[in-house]
Design a protein that fits this description.
The complex is a heterodimer of chains A (255) and B (431). Chain A is of the alpha/beta class. Chain A contains nine helices and ten strands. In chain A, the strands form two sheets. A six-stranded mixed beta sheet of chain A has the order 6-7-8-3-9-10, with helices on both faces. Chain A has a four-stranded antiparallel beta sheet with strand order 2-1-4-5, with helices on one face. Chain B is mainly α. Helices cover 72% and strands 1% of the residues of chain B. The chains are: A alpha/beta (255), B mainly alpha (431). The interface between A and B is large, with 39 and 37 residues. Chain B: Its main location: membrane.
């Protein structure tokens, strides 16, 4: 599956910087994402990848730099802005409210309402059942708080949220960190399916095998700086490791 | 892939009556505890505990704490606390007392029909504004709610003192006093109408929820279970009204009322209290707050924020503004409770609402609100307030000394939470 990289990228983050106190968490980083492309974001803990992604999802505000979608600059000041631009995020911590059921979580912040403006729980549950039948047919616990769900079931709620609201840009922060083998395979299948539908996906992961298997490109960060973005077919696992650990881009060095 | 409708039908086998009725087990336990408590005192007092007169009194005495407890549920659910509600009640009461007794009579005259509405609006505005101030300090300035409201307790309690010079203010406006209980009652006929409408409304709400579930093909409980539930609820409402309707108004008081109108009371004339206006107010507050909690976005966001503040924030919920709204609502309800309290006591005393913050928090917590946030119900909080008031009233009737009454109430609070903790550990609801 090759990605068509002619025309305008789906998303560009240009020259993004953010500092917390004296620490430059993200330092003049530029990344892009094309439709139907999965880009793996790699780096040590504290490399700045989660921070970069949180700028895109509206959780943090960049000090400088710009975000372009379909070549047009957009403002993302808060999570609501990100959502209106069809950017959906699946967080490592599975940002779910444990005390609410699957439907309430799926629609959190975007509840379906009756003509009187009251939340329509029955309709939201019906919609949740509809989408879950596609994503995870084994999902049964619609009436329980998500606290009672397994890691994989919780993950499918988080993914259902992104899929239901027609994400164009999907950010997955360690989507398989809390999952078993079978559930990890399920998420991998889903990533491929979403990619085939033309979504652009940022995948943050520690697992290089994961990344080599699922991604079209890898983007490596170290100490807040961009080390490089390479197509997976152009680099070996060792190359990626040395980018992560040494912060050096072997292809650039060789050239 | 799989048929969603059929999938819903495949619920596991059911066990026990509470399961079939789909009752919250905690509610079931609380109602059972309350019934046992009532029966115990009924036997102990030789029947007077459940006399119409005493039930009327307990109902009236529960209102102020009950109203505030519904707001406290929202506060605690969002992982906050409000220690200032008693002081805030006093502050609202003080401004209302000064408004109706000193300010308004000079402006619009002593008997003006404007006195009551203006007084009520002043109290509610003061309460809401102070609550919003608390919420702003907590939500936008990041000061812990414990500190803001602990400070508020000192500030408002003593500002109340300052503006009334520490003196009691006698209240005479009859339309204000109508909110107190014994003075403002609906009488027999209207009470039946209200009770009937209430029972009908609850039945329709249950049937409506059932119809909505049906429409989407979800499992519903058996028709007989639904019928039984509706019958029990409607029976409880109408039974309550019947009891209050059986409480006669004292002949001397009736005679005074006739004399005030310049008439003579006919021989053998009787009248009954029926539903007090204040209890009706609590019912309305409970109904509105339940709808807010369960069926509005505001309520949904309150529970989501309590369950996981980060998730709520990332879902685009403005949790700071939500905090302001929750505390403003708490303040509004303090204003309402102040109206009921001062009308019941027929005066504003300097110590009005003292220790109410603890009663209100205890009512919410006994009612199943988790201090860790995210969990709580309106009906639970009102039931909690009712249980505490009944306990206090019953102990008073059987001659338990006041210090021991307070000791028992304190112990009950701890034991209730203890039992709840064990229950949640068993059911795995506690991590």
């Amino acid at each position: 599956m090759s990605v068509d990289r002619s025309g305008t990228p789906l998303l560009e983050m240009r020259d993004i910087s953010i500092a917390f106190g004296g620490v430059r968490a993200v330092d003049h980083v530029t990344v892009d994402l094309w439709p139907g492309e999965v880009v793996g974001l790699l780096g040590h803990n504290g490399a700045g990848k989660s921070t970069l992604i949180k700028i895109l999802s509206g959780a943090y505000k960049a000090d400088s730099g710009e975000v372009l979608i379909d070549g047009k600059p957009v403002r993302i000041d808060n999570p609501r802005d990100a959502r209106t631009h069809n950017i959906e995020t699946i967080y490592q911590t599975l940002a779910l409210a444990d005390n609410l059921d699957a439907a309430s979580n799926l629609f959190l912040g975007r509840e379906l309402t009756t003509p009187l403006g009251l939340v329509d729980d029955a309709r939201m549950e019906a919609e949740t059942r509809r989408i879950m039948a596609k994503l995870n047919p084994n999902f049964r616990k619609f009436a329980d708080p998500v606290k009672a769900l397994s890691g994989g079931q919780r993950q499918s709620v988080a993914i259902a949220r992104a899929v239901y609201f027609n994400a164009r840009i999907l950010i997955m922060d360690e989507p398989t960190a809390a999952l078993g083998v079978h559930e990890t395979a399920m998420v991998a299948e889903l990533v491929k399916e979403l990619k085939a539908q033309g979504l652009g996906i940022f995948l943050i992961s520690h697992d290089i095998h994961d990344v080599m298997g699922l991604c079209d490109r890898v983007t490596v960060m170290k100490n807040g700086r961009l080390v490089g973005s390479e197509r997976v077919e152009d680099v070996s696992e060792d190359d990626i490791l040395s980018m992560i650990i040494l912060g050096k881009n072997p292809r650039r060095e060789a050239a | 892939m799989s048929d969603v409708g059929r999938l819903a039908g495949g619920t596991p086998e059911r066990r026990g009556l509470a399961d079939t009725l789909e009752l919250d087990k905690r509610l079931f336990g609380m109602v059972a505890a309350f019934v046992l408590l009532c029966l115990g005192f009924w036997v102990w007092t030789g029947g007077t505990f459940l006399s119409p007169r005493n039930i009327f009194n307990i109902a009236v005495q529960t209102v102020a704490v009950g109203i505030m407890a519904t707001g406290m549920v929202f506060v605690i659910v969002t992982r906050q606390i409000d220690l200032s509600v008693g002081a805030l009640l006093a502050m609202c009461s003080a401004t209302m007392a000064m408004t109706q007794a000193y300010v308004l009579p000079g402006v619009v005259g002593l008997d003006s029909p404007l006195i009551m509405p203006v007084t009520v609006v002043v109290g509610l505005v003061v309460g809401t504004a102070i609550g919003a101030l608390h919420g702003w300090l907590i939500g936008y300035q990041g000061i812990p709610s414990f500190i803001v409201t602990l400070g508020g307790l000192f500030v408002w309690r003593n500002l109340n003192w300052y503006i009334t010079n520490g003196q009691s203010v006698a209240l005479t406006n009859e339309r204000v006093l109508d909110f107190g209980g014994t003075e403002g009652v609906l009488g027999r006929g209207p009470s039946w109408v209200v009770g009937g409408l209430l029972a009908l409304g609850l039945a329709l709400a249950l049937l409506g929820a059932r119809r909505a579930k049906r429409r989407h093909g979800f499992a519903v409980k058996p028709a007989w279970a639904e019928g039984l539930l509706i019958a029990v609820i409607a029976g409880a409402v109408l039974g309550f009204v019947a009891v209050l309707n059986a409480y006669p108004i004292a002949a001397t008081k009736l005679r005074r009322q006739f004399e005030a109108r310049g008439e003579v009371m006919p021989e053998g004339f009787t009248a009954y209290h029926g539903l007090p206006v204040s209890v009706l107010l609590l019912i309305v507050v409970a109904a509105v707050m339940t709808v807010v909690a369960r069926r509005t976005r505001f309520g949904r966001y309150i529970f989501a924020t309590g369950g996981n503040p980060d998730a709520a924030e990332l879902s685009g919920i403005n949790t700071r503004w939500l905090t302001v709204k929750v505390f403003a609502l708490m303040g509004f309800l303090c204003g309402l409770a102040a109206l009921v309290s001062q009308a019941r006591l027929q005066s504003h005393g300097n110590d009005i609402g003292t220790l109410d913050e603890l009663r209100v928090i205890a009512a919410a917590v006994i009612g199943g609100t988790a201090l860790a946030g995210g969990i709580g119900t309106i009906y639970g909080a009102i039931l909690g307030a009712l249980i505490m008031q009944s306990l206090q009233s019953g102990m008073g009737m059987v001659g338990v000394d006041t210090p021991f009454q307070n000791i028992v109430v304190g112990a009950v609070l701890v034991v209730a939470v203890w039992i709840d903790t064990i229950y949640r550990k068993r059911t795995g609801a506690l991590k």
